[in-house]
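hey can u check if this looks right to u? its 143 residues, i copy pasted from the old doc so theres a chance i mangled smth
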Amino acid sequence: MVEQRAQGTTCPFCEIAAGRAPAFVLTETDAALAILDIAPVRRGHALVLPRRHVEDLTSTGAREAVAALAGPLTEVSTLLVERLGASGLTCIQANGASAGQEIAHLHFHLVPRFTADERLTIRTRQPRDRRALKQVFRTLSGG
């Protein structure tokens, strides 16, 4: 089921979860998936989200959604450290527009961090580069 957003548009994460929109899927379960962010703040920036539409941590169904994300969160964290050589990572989750949530579908950002990184802000986006995303995807997926 695709949720309708307040503006009358469909939720892009619901579209991805349903297989109707493209994404670089790093891992998936029946209840969750992890994808590469199309506007990364760092190489390998991933998003982990529930398949079921839940807006944020205060919404109905949030407890179950967060529980379903535990496995993909740890799996992708390990991928980012082991395959990209990250020395750490930042996990970010925002609730509501005032907190910086751009898409009203619960999701966690996993951002690989490296020793020489400059200060990170979620607004520090890299230009969209599909070739670079494909290269990172190949590195993380082992293919």
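The longest strand covers residues 108-113.
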